[in-house]
Design brief:
By secondary structure, this protein is an all-alpha fold. It has 18 helices and two strands.
């Protein structure tokens, strides 16, 4: 069985090493294209400008990403921009005031563009699957359903040879796509989805946490133990990779914030009474965190994938939703607007 897994591993590793750069505009177009077809927007759809589907030619408008139902997220996203724009219209009409009052609590409690951050990991999973499919290799779900491969993969990415020869060389590519994707695969193999919730994020058994913790510890033992600069580099790079889970789940967290959250979890996970040999590692981490306070502006130059998707959607797509409600209002299509409000 190990020999069979070795072949799968080599194919998977080759795919992850050669992933094309992410198109955040493409991710935003994909979400917009599908959100536009959410049933909440049936009456207003003709007013919502479409865009080229992504990937090109994929005109499916089912309410899913990576095989997971995301219709509620699409609804909350589109409704946020439509409702915010309707409420901002400067009109003294009683009808508009009533509609705005009806929407107001939803804007506070339900409608939100923050769902974009949570959708990022599923978009990335689709990005990986596109690469795998192009090479005739198994999808993430097929790998997750391959009995025993999850444990094999998790063990392989925590070996010293992998960490030194691959995980620690990834920073030469500024987007850190390889390392981030490796950890996404690790979680996917266990949870059978790229989506993380707060409980998975905080779990010390989350595969990506265990792997990144190993990367940090092994790298420190090999390179950082004798060099403050190397230790700072290790923490910085691990913090950058940690942005994927932390920023996707917790929202607008800076890279320096993700770094601190990850190492706070590391310190909590280590029992120095049982493993006193790890005390120098923890002391080194603490000293490095204090030094890096002065470097946080530089560290924050790396923008998390979830933040890039969030800002790209806002810049490129939100106007299509805002213009839709303005156009319907200008045409006095109260029937379409009322139908939408009642569905929301």
């Amino acid at each position: 069985m190990s020999a069979n897994f070795d072949a799968i591993w080599e194919d998977l590793l080759g795919d992850l090493k050669t992933l094309p750069a992410i198109s955040f505009d493409g991710f935003a177009r994909r979400i917009h294209y599908r959100a536009r077809w959410n049933s909440d927007f049936n009456s207003l759809r003709k007013y919502i400008d479409t865009d080229q589907p992504y990937p090109p030619g994929d005109e499916s408008h089912n309410q899913e990403l990576d095989g997971k139902y995301t219709g509620e997220d699409f609804s909350r996203l589109g409704n946020f921009f439509l409702a915010a724009e309707l409420m901002s219209i400067d009109d003294d009409g009683t009808w508009q005031i009533v509609m705005a009052a009806q929407l107001s609590p939803y804007c506070i409690l339900i409608f939100t563009p923050e769902v974009l951050r949570g959708l990022t990991s599923m978009c990335l999973a689709e990005h990986l699957n596109t690469k795998f499919k192009s090479n005739g290799h198994p999808s993430l779900m097929e790998l997750a359903n391959t009995t025993g491969f999850a444990d094999y993969f998790i063990n392989r990415i925590q070996t010293k040879s992998f960490i030194i020869n691959l995980a620690l060389t990834d920073p030469t590519r500024s987007d850190h796509l390889f390392s981030i994707s490796v950890l996404l695969v690790a979680d996917y193999l266990k949870y059978k989805t790229a989506y993380l919730d707060i409980w998975k994020l905080l779990s010390k058994d989350r595969p990506s946490f265990k792997a990144l913790h190993a990367w940090s510890l092994v790298a420190w033992d090999e390179q950082g133990r004798r060099s403050e600069r190397e230790t700072d580099n290790i923490l910085t790079n691990c913090g950058i990779v940690a942005t994927m889970p932390y920023c996707s789940v917790l929202g607008s967290v800076s890279t320096f914030g993700a770094l601190n959250l990850f190492y706070a979890a590391v310190k909590t996970a280590i029992d120095t009474d049982s493993f006193p040999e790890l005390r120098p590692y923890l002391d080194s981490i603490e000293a490095s965190l204090n030094r890096l306070i002065n470097e946080q502006a530089i560290i924050n130059e790396f923008v998390s994938y979830s933040e890039k998707l969030y800002t790209t959607f806002y810049h490129n797509m939100s106007g299509k939703w805002r213009d839709a409600i303005r156009t319907a209002w200008r045409e006095r299509n109260t029937g379409a607007i009322t139908d939408w409000v009642n569905k929301g």
